[in-house]
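Weekend entry, working from home. Most of the wet-lab plans are on hold until the incubator is repaired, so I used the time to fold the two sequences that have been sitting in the queue since the last round of cloning. Logging both here for the record. First:
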Amino acid sequence: MNIDRFWHLIESARSSATVSGSPFDEALVDVLAECPRREILEYAERFDEVHDALYRWDIWAAAYLIGGGCSDDSFMDFRAGVIALGRDWYECTALSPDSLAGHPAVVEAASAHHDEALFHENVNYAAREAFERLTGDREAFYKAQAEHRSTGRQHGSATDMGEDFDFDDADEMRRRLPRLAALYL
């Protein structure tokens, strides 16, 4: 699956969620469940790639500010939430995590002292849920995914996370993420 098709599926789910008022992750499962099994597996592979590309200290710092802290598991959910924002916000975040200070959900969450903005755990499992809907078997996805990956590129190459720094150092956070720090510190 090429990157344009991946983002088309994300945008289709975003549009569907907006029209129906359903949560994004449910709309994404609906969109994916209309795809052939192989395309769901290709989507999952591409999802992992774009998800892994956000595995950086500066993005984790943004998640830490927005979430009032951020564990390993929460950081997975945050990266899924950034993907759910669509291609434009994903690319802006990858270029400059501080740009999230301009996203309406982040601004609203900061003013309401709500720490769940952009943390969308179920987006991580949309491909599995869609595959299960097609097959009726919860475990079928993992077997098919392992077979799919064994015929192609191996998943799991190491990512350069960039420079590590102390998320609890307010001065450092203000220096690195000034707009987000202004909202949250």
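Second, folded right after the first finished:
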Amino acid sequence: MNLPNRITLARICLIPFLMVFLLVDFPFYPEPLQLGSLALPYNQLIAAFIFIVAASTDGIDGYLARKNNMVTNLGKLLDPLADKLLVTAVLISLVQMGKLDSWIAVVIISREFAVTGLRQIALLDGSVVAASAWGKLKTVVQIVAIVLLLLNNFPFSYTGIHVDVIAVWAAALITIWSGVDYFIKNKNLLHLSKV
């Protein structure tokens, strides 16, 4: 249990706290923070902070593991699992809150399952499906979209431009394309046995 793996586990442990702030209706929440015409509930503000901290640990644990030669099988299992749990938990919470259409959450989560399945096939074949540039861009855009939804489109709400909606659509499209890209580049792994 080295430092990178502890950081990854910390990311997983933050998920329940994130969901509590998003989904539990505490009677003692103060009035929303008023930023001019924008009302920002404190629970969403705290959840956004937790999400940003959790998402930022993704790059940190991987960097430390590679730099210090601390890559382990446990880390290879936990790191992608932590990412998927974090994004899935927030997407489902946003659907529950009425901030995200359920079909977008289904598309994003389905892509994650599909690519995870492809990676499992690769492992059985003795190869590795490396993260692609599209996959990395997908992660960044998803994080941006989620943060904007949690912050009610702050600071762009003052401009009248729905950057949160644009980011959600961009996340959905890039998520779909990155999934297709993984399958195109690794189609050799999908051997169809003859009956």
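Plan for Monday: verify the second prediction. The chain is about 70% helix and 5% strand.
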